[in-house]
Amino acid sequence: MIKVEHVSKHFGGVHAVNGVSLEVNKGDIVCLIGPSGSGKSTLLRCIHGLETVDDGAVYMDGELMDPADKAKYREQRNRMGFVFQHFNLFPNKTVLDNCTLAQMTVLKRSREEAEKTALEYLDKVGLLDKKDSYPNQLSGGQKQRVAIARALCMNPDMMLFDEPTSALDPEMIKEVLEVMKDLGRQGMTMIVVTHEMGFARHVANRVLFLDQGHLVEEGDSEAFFTNPKSERAKDFLSKVF
Ligand code: ADP
Ligand code: MG
């Protein structure tokens, strides 16, 4: 579904992503893990087109994602939902309006149709009763569940998550992970940057380990956790467990 070929991204002198290649297939749940500053967010943002790549290419279903081919690129990007660490909800809009806005502006759905879809997904994440609330009236976990519902309203073929639980208090992490687990069970293709090693081990089917912009190791998640091959992955795991 997604193929990343030799992608590199610099910020000034920093080589944030350095020649990374990977493939994500339909139904995969892939976790990107690695130390802070290893390039996980940059890689995810390059896949989604939030950053342009300096070198290499990203393909979706065999077709190049090319920013110069504007209409097609927009369509390709719209097939991916993105969930941010800090939710990025519109603070001055209700939960329902947060979920309908892009449906109406980007997908040109009628308000009626957009609301129907929004209510369906708000129900799925357990927040139907919050539809008229504003983001600042919600807990962090609730905000993140709204952000997930909002992304799902666009009917993406895959979902990208950048540390979706890192800004949450411990008791709220679980409710968000449960929503993500459910999504996975329903067959959603997902790429998840996370420090939640339980999720990476038990929910993801594959783990990619990054260090200093390099994809150092990748493998079946259970195998990665029981028997990491590289010294850097061993060292990382010894610090997080
Ligand atoms: P991670 O998500 O694994 O913590 P990042 O992808 O955020 O890592 O960052 C990788 C490297 O790129 C870091 O050295 C970071 O400081 C740098 N970097 C990321 N984004 C920017 C940016 N917009 N401008 C300058 N440097 C950046
Ligand atoms: Mg990051």
UniProtKB/TrEMBL annotation:
ABC transporter domain segment(s): 2-237
Pfam families according to UniProt: ABC_tran (PF00005)
GO CC annotations on file: plasma membrane
InterPro entries recorded: AAA+_ATPase, ABC_ATPase_HisP-typ, ABC_transporter-like_ATP-bd, ABC_transporter-like_CS, MetN_ABC_transporter-like, P-loop_NTPase
Membrane-crossing residue ranges in chain numbering: none
Keywords for this protein: Amino-acid transport, ATP-binding, Cell membrane, Membrane, Nucleotide-binding, Transport
GO molecular function, one term: ATP hydrolysis activity
Compartments, record wording: Cell membrane
Entries under PROSITE patterns matching the protein: ABC_TRANSPORTER_1, ABC_TRANSPORTER_2
Topology in the lipid bilayer: Peripheral membrane protein
Family (UniProt): Belongs to the ABC transporter superfamily.
Full protein name: ABC transporter ATP-binding protein
Species lineage: Bacteria, Bacillati, Bacillota, Erysipelotrichia, Erysipelotrichales
